[in-house]
Structure formats: C-alpha cells, structure tokens
User: What shape does this take?
Amino acid sequence: MKLWGGRFRKETDSLVNDFNSSIQFDSRLYQEDIMGSLAHAAMLADCGIISREDHALIHAGLKDILADIEEGKVSFSAGNEDIHMNVEALLTQRIGPAGKRLHTARSRNDQVAVDLRLYLRREIDEIIGLLLGLMSAVLAQAKLHQNTVMPGYTHLQRAQPISFAQHLLAYGEQFKRDVGRLEDCRKRMNVCPLGCGALAGTTYPIDRRQTARLLGFDGPCANSLDGVSDRDYAIELLGGLSILMMHLSRFAEEIILWCSWEFKFIELDDAYATGSSIMPQKKNPDVAELVRGKTGRVYGSLMGLLTTMKGLPLAYNKDMQEDKEPVFDAVDTVKMCLPVFAGMLGTMRVLPENMRRAAGGGFINATDCADYLTKKGMPFRDAYTAVGNLVYYCTQNGKLLEELSLDELRGISALFDEDVYDALNLETCMAQRKSAGGPAPEETARQIEELSNFVEERQNG
Ligand code: ARG
Assistant: This one.
C-alpha cells in the first residue's frame, strides 16, 4: 500500500504509477533528502515533538540508509513514487514504528524544496570552481600574448589593432560576471523552506531556525506558501547558466573561426580536435562546436522551467515535479563544458605571425592616422575625411597607408611629416592605446593582475 493509501480503496493503475513517479530522476537527491531528514528529526526531538529514543533510531536508520545507497545496496521502487517516500519507506522497514514519526510536522512539499536548494547550492559551488579553472586557463594564455598584435574586429571586419591578450581578457571579464551571478543566486537560494509544511505551516511547536542552521542556511524563508511554491532559485540558476553558456558559445564560435584556414590564428591540440571519417586532411573543432550546440540545450531548460511555472496558482502543484530534469540536465551540461573548454584553451597553439599578418591588411591603423593629423591640430572630423580619401587612394593603387610616400601623404595634408611612419606602425598603434582598459601591455598587465586576484581570492578563500 502507498504511504498515502489510507483514503483510497483501489490500487493505483500501473500506468499512473509510472506516470506519476519521479524516482527515476530524483533519486539523485538522496543525500540532500537524508540530510534534511536528519536535521528535521533532531529538531523534532529538541522541541519535544518526538522522543529521544525515537530520534536515536531515526538518526541511526537514516545514516545506514545513506551508507547503503552509497554502496549501491539499495534499489528504489517506482511504487514509492519519489526519493522522499522511498527513504521514508526504507526507514520504517528497517526501524519499525519510530520511522513513521519522521514525517511529523513535514510535507513532501517543503521536503522537496529543501532538497533541491541543498543540491543546487552544492552544484553552484562546484560550477564556480570549474569556472575559476577556466579563468585560469584564459589568464595563462593572456600572460603569454600581451605583445601579440592581432586585428580587433567589429562587424567581423578588421577594425583596430589589439593584442591577443586583450581579446582573451574580454572573455575573462564575462566569466568573472558569471561567477558573480552564481554567487548572487546562491545567496538568495540559501534560505530554508523546511517547516512550511504542505503550505500552511504546522500546529506543532517546531523551531525553523534550528533546521535552517543545521543545514547551513542563512535562516528560514518568510512565508509558508511562498516557501513551497518558489522555484525562482532554480530559474535564476538556469538564467545564470544560460548566460554563461552564451559566453562559452561566443568564445567557441571564435575558436572555430580562428582555426579555419581562412584565419589560422590558432591550431587546436590533437587531443582536443577530431578527424573526419572520409576526408583524410580534416582536423575539426568538434569540442567548440559541441559547446556552441549545447548552449541551445541549456536555454531550452530555462525556457522549459519558466513555462512550467507560468500561471501556476499557489501553492504546490505537481507540475513542479517537472523542475528537476531540466535543472539536472543544465547543471550536467555546464559541468561537462567548462573543463573541456579550459583544456582546449590551455593546449591550443597560438600563431602570432598569422595574427600579425592579418593585422597588416585591412587598414586597421586608419584611426591612428586620423589621430595623427588631429594631434597636429586638424579637427578630428576633417582628419577622418582626409584619411578616408587616403584609404580610397590606397585601394586604387594597391598600397597600405604606411607604404605611401611623404609626397603622396602631403597631397592630402601638409601636416604629414616623417614621424607619421612610426605613428602608423601597428606595434606602436597597439602599445599607445593606454587608456584605462585598453590593449596597451601595461593595461593588459593590470587587467591580468586584477582578474588573477579575483580567481585566487576564491580559490584560497
Ligand atoms: N516528487 C514531488 C516533486 O518532485 C515531491 C512533492 C510531492 N508532493 C505532493 N503533494 N505530491 O515535486
């Protein structure tokens, strides 16, 4: 018979049993479920709601079940629906009547809410750790390439000279914000719904602060209806993970471009690339492509859960059982993507001479040429037009700006002098961009230091 079988006179249809049960996927919450029960039972005993003897039996029984699950000795049953009822049924089987007292002043509604928060809190810590690992890989490459000139792009058109370090550090900043978002989400997640009961709290003299404290929460959540019906924390996490995947996907896209023959800015390590079954010459960036592809999957989880929660009346509704699979899938996906991406970055071979060659075409020193005239006194807008004319002249004559003779330059403006050639030199153009946050080596060094401090504070803290 079901734990809730009292008011029923018929067995559940076997189709309904399978349809209704969540044990296939929520068994992954066993540890959190047992931790929650241990805290709840201790509180019940301290508040005089169950006896010390019953508490001792419950405590020992739960610990045994935990150990047995960990050793693979327990098989769960779909008849017992979910992890909560499976653990409770096992407990009663093992310790007898005392097991039946565990669910006093509790409902599966506050139980599942506490389990999921505990689980996601732990996963957030793990994901932050992996993100910091990825940031370290970004930083290690950035340190090596502060003087590696490459074209910076807008509209995927060569725009202005930057260093490869500067480009990588832009992703470093994105990942730093991702860490911040996850830390922020964790903070809001860290309140305890235990004691909300089914929806309306309880008449027993429970101590919600105690269970919250025992489970490492900052305190109990404020409203019992909200406590059992809130899944904001899961949605926020999926939001944060979706943004993180968006960042990875943009980075992946660039890796894919960079290792194409058209760019050839990098070469992936053999251990992080794949071949073709038919084309012998191929070396494909499958890792980057899969990360880009899996981004859609994480967005799907976010949209799925938002849609599940949309329009649900207070408080708990069974629809909410559909929260787990998308959340688990997104967490698993992100945890797979982060280390493989870090490995790919850490092992890729950077080809500075190709970056430099690409930087040499496309007139990416045109802004610097206009700035040269401006510094000599010409209003910027006039300088802009003058250099536009020079670029046009160059395209007609197959030349670069720095290849024009002084006479040719002076045909456009008398302000040009010998020192223009240094001003047009790409290394100079990059190194002179010293404005805060710019690509000049002293600025990338500062960015590297700040980002490294951010990572180290967390890794050592
Ligand atoms: N398995 C359920 C879930 O995941 C637990 C809560 C069930 N509560 C209920 N009243 N049916 O949401």
Q: What stands out?
A: The pocket of arginine is lined by residues 22, 26, 82, 108-109, 112, 316, 318, 320-321 (CB under 6 Å). The first strand starts at residue 149 and ends at 154.
